[in-house]
């Protein structure tokens, strides 16, 4: 039973295609649907776009434009069947199922319905033959070997005769012949063509994506078929690169040679390519209107989205471009945080989240993670005109991106200066962003190392004297914690080497001074701080690599 509280409680935005397409999609869908209706049905359309750019939304809009009993619409989700040993099997089976669905809807036209069932029957024979020929030998763990028995497959299709001269010897030839016979009947059927929409291809591993595209080629010479495939072109090109490495391509490495294998492959597969235009920041209001209209949000959440969240969304545009899926992720991360920790200042939540969502600003966010209290103080000075407030503390921040400068000095970033520190906000955000909690502590230790380096600069005159004892002891404890963390990062062995370098440097700080040509002095301390600071910089960069492996794997 749905209560009043259920109806008014905040909701997340589902990662589903927009029900009311904006951004010019209706006009694009109408044009491509017209091409599908009027052209000879023996071609493929490639809808190219990056992750979250709206490929599924556009394909659904095209399918809606084509809604008619004169076409058979097939929806195939490649990712759902990625674990199948041969993706052509579920692809064919999905076509067969769509034909049966069409036949059931055409019961008042018995002849048309039976013709559709007949085509489905022939396809089913091919599917069964492929399935019969496949045999899997499952090994330990996730290791599996898949083999194909051509004889069994041909027998299942009724194509195996005693005299080789009278029967096909190739499974694909036999399948093509069977499908040709089936689709000759498409011309006589009441439906004019079969339109197959292939989605989520770029969620598959590159090799599997290429496998499906290769399987689709079986249909390309058959009358009656149109494919509409949504894919990130980079995925296809990467798959071609993996299958045909540059060193294996004839003449690819010759003097002045320009190898275009990947581009030519895409051109041969997709006769009608359409690249989705990037969504610009000025179109953000169009996207938000679509969300307001379709998300079924309560009045309070809708008002907060319009009046508070909206002003931050423009800042997550990269080079003036917006990714619709990233917009939804941003809103959902905010919604979840404010539901779990309602006492947090909502504007501070949004201000910090904006800084974290922009990958190009990650060096600044590293500083927030390492020394949030020091960052808050520096930000306050920076906002009042002190251009060197960050650089004085963190030299790597000497040249900030122009859009980051605008953000830090805008009213949107002001809430970051309201808190004594941002620790609670950082932990809250990381809970929604797939962070390793130990990694956050690693950043804290980097911040503590920088504070100790500033302490050494201010208080220590000679390496190994009494004034070096306290910072050396503190840095030694920090390095030990980092060493323990580094040992757990099996895929990041460089981190171990950096921490070992740090430990050797800390040992030098507390060691007895060595007289070398006149003894030690302030210059030695300055040199030690410089060298150790570079090691801490390397450590911070390596932590960023680990952070990216967590955060960005969760958004792909």
UniProtKB/TrEMBL annotation:
Residues 27-336 form the KAP NTPase domain. It comes from the Bacteria. InterPro entries: KAP_P-loop, NTPase_KAP_P-loop, P-loop_NTPase. Pfam families: KAP_NTPase. PANTHER family: NTPASE KAP FAMILY P-LOOP DOMAIN-CONTAINING PROTEIN 1, NTPASE, KAP FAMILY P-LOOP DOMAIN-CONTAINING 1. This is KAP NTPase domain-containing protein. It comes from Planobispora siamensis.
């Amino acid at each position: 039973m749905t209560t009043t509280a259920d109806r008014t409680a905040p909701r997340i935005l589902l990662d589903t295609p927009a029900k009311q397409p904006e951004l010019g999609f209706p006009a694009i869908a109408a044009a491509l649907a017209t091409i599908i209706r009027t052209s000879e049905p023996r071609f493929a359309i490639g809808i190219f776009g990056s992750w979250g750019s709206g490929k599924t939304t556009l394909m659904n809009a095209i399918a809606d434009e084509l809604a008619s009993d004169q076409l058979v619409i097939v929806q195939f989700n490649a990712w759902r069947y990625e674990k199948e040993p041969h993706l052509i099997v579920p692809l064919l089976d999905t076509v067969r199922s769509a034909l049966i669905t069409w036949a059931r809807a055409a019961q008042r036209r018995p002849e048309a319905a039976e013709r559709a069932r007949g085509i489905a029957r022939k396809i089913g024979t091919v599917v069964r033959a492929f399935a019969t020929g496949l045999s899997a030998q499952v090994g330990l763990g996730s290791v599996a070997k898949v083999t194909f028995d051509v004889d069994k497959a041909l027998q299942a299709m009724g194509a195996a005769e005693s005299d080789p001269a009278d029967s096909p010897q190739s499974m694909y030839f036999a399948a093509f012949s069977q499908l040709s016979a089936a689709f000759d009947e498409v011309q006589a059927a009441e439906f004019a063509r079969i339109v197959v929409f292939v989605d989520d291809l770029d969620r598959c591993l590159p090799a599997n994506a290429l496998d499906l595209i290769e399987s689709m080629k079986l249909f390309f010479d058959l009358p009656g078929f149109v494919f509409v495939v949504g894919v990130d072109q980079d995925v296809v090109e990467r798959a071609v690169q993996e299958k045909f490495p540059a060193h294996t391509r004839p003449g690819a490495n010759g003097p002045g040679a320009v190898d275009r294998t990947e581009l030519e492959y895409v051109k041969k597969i997709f006769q009608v390519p359409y690249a989705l235009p990037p969504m610009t920041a000025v179109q953000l209001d169009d996207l938000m209107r679509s969300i307001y209209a379709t998300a079924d949000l309560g009045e309070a959440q809708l008002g907060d989205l319009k009046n508070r969240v909206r002003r931050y969304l423009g800042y997550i545009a990269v080079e003036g471009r917006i990714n619709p899926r990233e917009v939804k992720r941003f809103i959902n991360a905010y919604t979840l945080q404010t539901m779990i920790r309602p006492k947090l200042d909502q504007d501070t939540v949004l201000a910090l989240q904006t800084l974290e969502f922009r990958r190009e600003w990650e060096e600044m966010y590293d500083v927030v993670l390492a020394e949030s209290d020091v960052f808050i103080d520096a930000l306050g000075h920076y906002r009042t005109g002190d251009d060197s407030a960050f650089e004085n503390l963190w030299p790597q921040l000497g040249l900030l991106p122009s859009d980051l400068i605008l953000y830090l000095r805008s009213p949107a970033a002001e809430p970051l200066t309201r808190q004594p520190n941002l620790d609670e906000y950082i932990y809250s955000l990381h809970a929604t962003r797939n962070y390793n909690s130990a990694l956050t502590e690693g950043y804290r230790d980097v911040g503590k190392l920088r504070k100790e380096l500033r302490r050494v600069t201010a208080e220590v005159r000679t390496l190994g004297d009494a004034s070096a004892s306290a910072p050396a002891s503190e840095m030694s404890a920090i390095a030990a914690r980092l060493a323990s963390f580094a040992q757990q990062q099996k895929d990041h062995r460089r981190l171990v080497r950096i921490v070992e370098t740090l430990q050797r440097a800390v040992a030098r700080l507390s060691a007895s001074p060595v007289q070398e040509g006149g003894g030690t002095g302030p210059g030695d301390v300055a040199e030690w701080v410089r060298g150790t600071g570079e090691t801490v910089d390397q450590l911070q960069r390596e932590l960023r690599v680990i952070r990216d492996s967590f955060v960005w794997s969760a958004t792909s």
